[in-house]
Amino acid sequence: MPISFTSHGAAGTVTGSKHLIDVERTDGRTFRLLLDCGMFQGEAVRDARHDPNRTFGFEPSSVDVLVMSHAHIDHSGLVPRLVAEGFQGPIFATPATRDLCTIMLADSAHIQETDYEYDVRRARKKGRLAPEDGPLYSTEDVSPAMELFQVIDYAEPTEILPGITLTYTDAGHILGSAAVHLDIDDGERVLRFTFSGDVGRYVDRLLPEPVRFRQADVLVCETTYGDRDHAPVAEAEAELLKHVLDVCVTGRGKLLIPAFSIGKTQEILYTLNTLSNEGRMPRIPVFVDSPLAISATEVVRGHTDLFKAEVREELLKDPDLFSFPGVEFVRTADRSKQLNGVKEPCIIIAASGMMEAGRIRHHLRNSLGDPANAVLAVGFCAPGTLGAQLLDGANEVSIFGDPVQVRARVLRMEFYSAHGDRNELLRWLSCQKPAQLKRIFLVHGVDRGLNGFKELLTSKGYANITIPKRGQRFEL
Q: Which candidate, 377, 385, 358, 345, places its Cα nearest to that of 246?
């Protein structure tokens, strides 16, 4: 197999993005590239006999280079473990992805250490043996990983291995997100390979639309929303304001918004800031209770050159698009705990978006039992996650091992998803000639998204479409 492709994650699931390319050149040299190194979450972990985050499916030291699409944990979360287990090659990323990974991976390590310590204390309290498996990696593992990062700007072709050139194009998903384009010369031919990473939206938001790209021979495409469409952009501000008024003004309750620290938190703050500037936002306390989100917002402020032109013009009138009267950024754990005692109506934005980790779980445990409160899910929640359980209508959930009754309303608002819907994915692919695409692999989706998008692509004239299984190897 001169060039082969194997998906070791995000195959039949939306988390754990990890795709391996093996190249055997005619001159006898071999190279191994890894695209993303993400963490599995939700049922991909709970339903497995062994934690898939603890085995890569390949030897880390055998990988020559790691190419990152963006900083979300399901695409970057196992980088420190990869390095700790022997990978020593360069890690290529856009400048913003590198900056975001610096804070994201440190936060991930801290959460794992804290959760493990909690599990140990809980086990001892109940007279059980402490968990055998420790954290996936420690805070000490993060710095050696970050030292391997090398940055490449968009649209700058760079030879990353002999005969292999990498070019990034803006994917419009989150700050610094990129589609990965590789020109792979095995000595007999040049294969044009494209990996979508996560494709963003074609709507009026902070970031520009995804960028068109050159014709590919082989394409690996995400399908998170491959079977559905998002609500029109015109409805977004009105819908968010309606939820705020219904829950906080009419119902006198708390509105909890679980949101990814990178991307969604900034988008929501941007909308609330716009409503505030227009005089439509009621004076309700807004707490951004996530040290990572606060740090991420500072990173975003440092990369405003990546915003849409119209948003950059807004900065001339409002130099801070993420802050407004009534908003408080909460860093300390003590202040976060004090929010549980807040009785008046308020909005609490906290990570994580799938409600699997972070401070949002404490607020959910404290607030789910009150019917005056509401939880507003603003993005995709992988099957098996706490967020998915709430969206599926669970009457009781387990948080920190304790049963919690669900009496609060659970609301959904998908506009803030950073993933393109099926028609936006089609639009991203519109620059490709179907007859010239020799192979399409669909990843990063559950069955309905994968199969729905495969049917849609087939109806549009695309062929040779494969939904790979984890560990399945294909010759290109």
A: 345
State CA 408 to chain mean position distance: 26
Q: Which has the closest alpha carbon to 321: 249, 272, 374?
A: 272
How is domain 233-416 classified at the architecture level of CATH?
Answer: 3-Layer(aba) Sandwich (3.40)
Q: List C-alpha distances in Å: 254 to 103, 189, 245, 361, 456.
A: 29, 60, 11, 15, 41
Bridge partner list, 182: 166, 193
Left if phi > 0, otherwise alpha if psi is -120 to 50, otherwise beta: which for 345? Answer: beta
Token pair 């649209």 is at which residue?
155
DSSP letter string, 141-195:
GHHHHHTTEEE--TT--EEEETTEEEEEEE-SSSTT-EEEEEEEE-SS-EEEEEE
d(CA 221, CA 453): 10
Per-residue model confidence as pLDDT tens digits over 257-308: 998 888 888 889 999 998 999 999 999 999 999 888 889 888 988 998 998 8
Parallel, antiparallel or unpaired: strands 3-9 and 18-24:
antiparallel
Q: Where does 3-228+418-475 sit in CATH, by number?
A: 3.60.15.10
d(CA 245, CA 342): 18
Q: Are 233 and 204 within 8 A, CB to CB?
A: yes
For the chain, which ranges sit under pLDDT 70? 1, 44, 46-49, 130, 204, 233-234
C-alpha span between 379 and 79 (Å, rounded): 24
Among 432, 395, 453, 475, residue whose Cα is nearest residue 216: 432
Q: Is 287 helix (H, G, I), strand (E, B) or coil?
A: strand
When computed from its CA atoms, the radius of gyration of the chain, rounded to whole angstroms, is 22
| Alpha carbon distance 258, 263 (integer Å) | 12
- What amino acid occupies position 446? V
Helix residue ranges, H only, 234-359: 236-244, 264-277, 291-301, 309-317, 333-338
| CATH 3.60.15.10 domain position(s) in the chain | 3-228+418-475
* Neighbouring-strand partners of residue 90: none
